[in-house]
Design brief:
440 residues; alpha/beta; Rossmann fold; four-stranded parallel β-sheet; 21 helices; binds iron/sulfur cluster
Length: 440
């Protein structure tokens, strides 16, 4: 699928360096990207910062390795990927890409999340093995044999933690008679974890290249992602690293392209009044979901609850906790209203977080994929994290999950597992936690 002959392919470090050369020569340091950035008024120590100095600190760090001023470091750390800065740049630089790429060098200088890929891979394995029988685990984690298909459905890594949303997407693709194959899990990472979180461009580039090659082995017309981090990493941050012969897009855009076909198959009313959770960072995803949900018979959308960043979680809105808390309280207030039956989650990370909020504040959370499947007259794949969440006791969860874990070949000491589950369930590796999974 790579069309450039190997001798002309540049390495990933050179690709990143070239991207920086382009951004550094185009950027006039006008500071407009900082001025419009919604995290700035909420981020500690940034409200009064000079926008020009903030962006200059980032650029000097990248060009000359000048130590990062505190406000510039905070800006990088708190960037939630909302993308508001992109249209604000008069020079056509993509400041979101600039900050995503800055994270690599920050992690290279001082990595606050060491061994995150290794920890994540193990945490995902445990979490999915608690929920699914081996054949279903294999469907999500075992690399499929290459064959010619129209579509590769690319799950990414962390969405495997909430497998029901992925199986629901597959049900929708089945209804649309799409010839597809599923790829995902840590063995098909997009490379963002190594390059952005560990600052290891060599591994990040190798992983991305390997995954792109494997997509190409299926000769697909389209590779459709679920995970918004993969979408931004492969589709924006490192776009152009390798030439490919397929379109890369988010699954929701594909469903929107086929909305007439999909809507014609909606045959079952879903009598609910819902609030729909969306994100600012990939607005087209939220808009597609709203449009498809509006076509479901019986379903009433009471309101949209847009939150910052491109998703919930460590890569998205959690990076700017003050801004997130400010908006989240409004989402919760909305969902507690008597005329609302449920909150509809968007991505996997959103679903995990919001379900916990629902448990705490007494409202139901469903993923939009469940509603699509229900409208197609099928039983949606149930949220298999939910029964564990309801137990609300880590030891009880280990006891409950024991047989399934054993069937999936995981034989951890029950006490050790109970101690580590709170971190596994909250992706603590992306906060520098889950240290017991690091190499000793
Ligand atoms: S992507 Fe959003 S949070 Fe990040 S710098 Fe741009 S405006 Fe700020
Ligand atoms: S808005 Fe564009 S040109 Fe101005 S500082 Fe930001 S990236 Fe540079």
């Amino acid at each position: 699928m790579t069309t450039l002959p190997p001798q002309t392919e540049i390495g990933f470090s050179d690709f990143v360096a070239q991207s920086w050369d382009d951004m550094l020569s185009a950027c006039t340091r006008c500071g407009k990207c900082v001025e419009v950035c919604p995290v700035v008024p909420f981020a500690p120590g940034m409200a009064l910062a000079d926008p020009v100095q903030v962006v200059t600190g980032v650029l000097d760090f990248m060009r000359d390795s000048v130590p990062l001023p505190e406000t510039s470091a905070t800006w990088i750390r708190q960037c939630n990927g909302c993308g508001d800065c992109i249209p604000a740049c008069p020079e056509g630089v993509n400041p979101r890409k600039m900050l995503m790429m800055s994270c690599s060098k920050v992690a290279e200088v001082h990595n606050p999340t060491p061994h995150v890929f290794r920890k994540m891979a193990r945490a995902i394995r445990i979490m999915v093995s608690m929920q699914l029988v081996p054949a279903d685990v294999a469907r999500l984690l075992r690399p499929p044999q290459a064959r010619d298909v129209d579509v590769v459905f690319y799950t990414g890594c962390n969405p495997i933690r909430t497998p029901h949303v992925l199986f629901n997407v597959m049900t929708v693709l089945d209804h649309l008679d799409i010839e597809y194959e599923v790829m995902g899990g840590p063995s098909a990472c997009c490379g963002i974890v190594y390059s952005k979180w560990e600052g290891d461009l060599k591994k990040g580039g190798r992983v991305a290249e390997q995954t792109l090659h494997r997509f190409g082995d299926f000769k697909p017309q389209k590779v459709l992602s679920w995970c918004p981090s993969c979408q931004i990493h492969l589709g924006e941050t490192i776009k152009g690293y390798r030439e490919v012969k397929f379109d890369f897009d988010h699954i929701t855009q594909f469903l929107l392209e086929r909305e007439d076909d999909l809507i014609a198959r909606f045959n079952t009313p879903v009598n609910k009044r819902v609030v729909v959770h969306t994100h600012h960072g990939l607005p087209e995803v939220g808009q597609a979901v709203l449009r498809l949900l509006r076509a479901i018979p019986g379903l009433t959308i009471v309101e949209e609850a847009e939150e910052p960043g491109y998703m919930c979680g460590a890569s998205g809105s959690d990076r700017s906790p003050e801004l997130k808390a400010h908006v989240r309280k409004d989402t919760i207030t909305l969902c507690k209203r008597d005329d609302v039956d449920a909150l509809v989650s968007l991505f996997h990370g959103c679903h995990l977080q919001l379900s916990k909020e629902g448990q705490t504040h007494g409202f139901q959370v469903v993923n939009f994929t469940e509603l699509l499947v229900a409208a197609l007259g099928e039983q949606p794949c149930p949220d298999t994290v939910e029964p564990f969440r309801q137990l609300n006791d880590w030891r009880a969860m280990v006891l409950e999950a024991g047989p399934m874990l054993k069937a999936n070949g995981i034989n951890m000491d029950p006490e050790e597992l109970a101690a580590v589950l709170p971190e596994v369930f909250t992706s603590a590796e992306f906060r520098g936690g889950l240290c017991s999974f690091a190499p000793q």
